[in-house]
Design goal:
The chain is an alpha/beta fold and about 190 residues long. It has a single domain (about 20-150), classed as Glutaredoxin (3-Layer(aba) Sandwich), CATH 3.40.30.10. About 40% of the residues lie in helices and about 15% in strands. It contains 8 helices and 7 strands; from the N terminus they run αβαβααβββαβαβαα. Strands 1-3-2-6-7 form a 5-stranded mixed sheet. A hairpin with a 5-residue loop joins strand 4 and strand 5.
Length: about 190
């Protein structure tokens, strides 16, 4: 009986997140994700008009790391709130056939754009500045690209680095992250 009570207590103490809805394309569809025509220059202008940073999240069907991010990291309350308040997120299917328009106006499939940008890992989050450089791929125009699944502290700190516009200072992300981990009590 004691063991059952202990198990019940542990289950109640463990945060449980609802599975994020999946689209017909096999990709996660959180409610903060924007549905657009995937004209990236237009999407960027919309993000700036809302006072938000544009983020392009590149994913693929069956990606275990995408699943981890969507079901374990993004639903964490402060991360979810940070995304909703500060970011305009557009999804790109690394192997998708949907038509997209790159920042330079060239139209192609999602998979061709992923190849053009040199993307090889999912998920990859591409964080764009308010003022885009005049040329380069999406990755080259980005403030930073986050390839892979990261834990809650790294994810939150990347979002904070962008939202607080720390990237506009001389502090690089690695130094910012270390400082934040100390403030968050994760390291001494």
């Amino acid at each position: 009986m004691r063991m059952i009570s202990l198990l019940v207590a542990l289950l109640l103490a463990t945060p449980v997140f609802a599975e994020v809805e999946m689209g017909d394309d096999g990709l996660h569809k959180p409610t903060w994700l924007r549905t657009t025509f995937k004209d990236f220059a237009e999407d960027h202008a919309s993000a700036v008009a809302e006072g938000k940073h544009m983020v392009i999240i590149v994913e693929q069907r069956g990606c275990i790391y995408c699943n981890k991010m969507h079901n374990e990291i993004f639903p964490i309350e402060n991360i979810d709130a940070m995304i909703r308040e500060n970011f305009f997120v557009v999804q790109l299917n690394m192997f998708g056939d949907e038509e997209v328009t790159d920042f330079d106006g060239e139209v192609m499939s999602e998979k061709d754009l992923a190849r053009r940008w040199g993307l090889v890992f999912t998920p990859t989050m591409i964080f764009l500045p308010e003022e885009l450089p005049d040329s380069g791929t999406g990755v080259q125009r980005a403030v930073l690209a986050m390839p892979g699944a990261f834990g809650k502290y790294t994810t939150f700190n990347i979002l904070k680095f962008m939202a607080d516009r720390v990237y506009q200072t001389d502090e690089v992300f690695q130094k910012f992250h270390a400082r934040m981990l100390k403030e968050q009590g994760v390291i001494e």
